[in-house]
Design a protein that fits this description.
Elements: E1 6-15, E2 19-23, H1 36-44, E3 53-56, E4 66-70, E5 76-95, E6 98-113
Antiparallel strand pairs: 1-5, 2-4, 3-4, 5-6
Length: 118
């Protein structure tokens, strides 16, 4: 039987800047003139290898669109895991034109393993 809930590896993220950023990619559509100076301002402005975090405002909206942080010991490839949870509701889905009821399993939490203690 396939386990549908719990922690599962969903991929890996490569880092060459010593930092990571989490945000909604649709906000990058608002950036018409991406350039290296913007990268330095948003991500490396005192952040790289400092162990600090920083809120990132990508466009003129009055909100923070991302969070950036240093990545563990720096550059590398880091495991990304997701916690799947069954919320106990049946959800209708169409399969080959027929409505079927499936479990409501969603990603509840995501974690990036930056430093392994084992």
């Amino acid at each position: 039987m396939i386990k549908l809930t719990g922690w599962k590896t969903i991929g890996y993220v490569g880092v060459d800047s010593g930092s990571l950023m989490i945000g909604d990619p649709c906000y990058l559509d608002d950036v018409d003139d991406w350039n290296p100076e913007m990268y330095e301002k948003w991500i490396c402005g005192g952040l790289c290898n400092s162990g600090d975090t920083q809120a990132v405002q990508i466009n003129d909206m009055c909100m923070e669109q991302a969070v950036a942080f240093s990545s563990g010991f720096g550059d590398g490839v880091y495991e990304v895991k997701a916690l799947y949870k069954d919320y106990g509701r049946a959800v209708p889905t169409k399969k080959k034109g027929v409505t079927v009821w499936e479990k409501d399993i969603r990603i509840k939490e995501v974690k990036i393993i930056l430093i392994r203690d084992d």
